[in-house]
Amino acid sequence: MADLGVFVDRQVMGSSEQLTALIRLREQAEAMGHGVYFIFPVEVRKVARVDGLFIRSRTDPLHISYVAAKIAEFHGIPVIDDPVSIQVCSDKVNMYLHLMEKQVRIPETRFLSKGDITRSGADDVFSTLGRPVILKEPSTSFSLRVEKVETVDQFLKVAKRFIKLSDWIVAQQYLSSSYDWRIGVLDGELLYAAQYIIPSETFKIQDTVNGHLVYCAVRSVPAPEVPRPVIETGLAAARAIGRGLYGVDIKECDGVPYVIEVNDNPSLEGGEDTSYPDLNRRIVAALVGEGPG
Question: What is the reported pTM?
Answer without folding.
Answer: 0.91
